[in-house]
Amino acid sequence: MNGKPHQEVIEKKAVVAAKRGAKTTSSSSSSSADKVANGITVLYLSDRTCTGVLASHPLSCNIHIESLSLTFHGHDLIVDSELELNYGRRYGLLGLNGCGKSTLLTSIGCRELPILEHMDIYHLSSEIEASDMSALEAVICCDEEKIKLEKEPEILSAQDDGGGDALDRISPILKIMLWLEKLRCCHRDYTYYKNLQGAVLTYQCAQRQRLTGRELRKLKMAARETGALKEAKDKLEKRVEELTWRLGLKKRLKTDLEEAKGQEIAKLQETLHDMQQQVEEAKTMVIKEREGSRKAIESNRRSTSSNQRDPFESKHFCLI
């Protein structure tokens, strides 16, 4: 389906619908029915209470809500929490049954939280009805309904009264379809632009890689022809051999030095042990000499004391 003819048809339908007069009683009845439906929705949503404070910038793409509280039938599900949703990320709610996951999503979908006005919210409240259709068939079925809605203004304009109130009822839908078609075209052009930009970057990288590979091959060929690569390789090999020899010599010297140190330490320990033994022997000899001299002195004292007592005793006997 071509984009431009389809867009022109939608524009014509919107112009025809815009040229219609004021709405009749049927439009007023439909608006009253919408009001009644909105009132029923409000009554249905009155079972829960959701409060929060928007903390993000009014023009930001992120949502940051502080002091979030959610109550359902007087039961606190969420109390004084924070909700932060950043642009470009996907989030999932995990929790037990009855903890308030669906209630929170419903509150967000109904804009009960202070969410920015420039953000669109689409809340999928239930699954599609059970049928034998596949996912692709379901999407095609929606496309068929869209085609029916596009053909309906032509059928109504072909009637005698020009469609009457039904065309007035469809005119807002046609305007929305026109806006969606423009949005789709913009998105398609932006997608083409991003794809072309990525293709240009890929081509530039591939071209640079190709040029660098070509230059590298040229340098390799020139090096092979001149023999510079072989000479550099020989120099590197000699350098590696020299370094390995130096490293081995260093290791051998280190091991020899450690062995010499070990031998010297063992000799010093042996000499120290011998000296300790000699000192101990000298100490024992000195102690023995001291004991011998002390015994000799004591024996001399005893002999002298005995010699001094004998004259007195002889004199005593004489006097008697």
TrEMBL record:
One GO MF term: ATP binding
Sorted UniProt keywords: Coiled coil, Repeat
Q: What is the lineage of its organism?
A: Eukaryota, Viridiplantae, Streptophyta, Embryophyta, Tracheophyta
Q: What residues form the membrane-spanning segments?
A: none
Q: Which PANTHER family match?
A: ATP-BINDING TRANSPORT PROTEIN-RELATED (PTHR19211), OS08G0564100 PROTEIN (PTHR19211:SF122)
Q: Where is the composition biased (Basic and acidic residues)?
A: 287-301
Coiled coil ranges (UniProt) are 219-285
What this protein is called in its record is: ABC transporter domain-containing protein
> Which InterPro entries does this one have?
ABC_transporter-like_ATP-bd, ABCF
* ABC transporter domain residues: 81-119
Q: Name one Pfam family in it.
A: ABC_tran
Species: Zizania palustris
Region annotated Disordered sits at 287-313
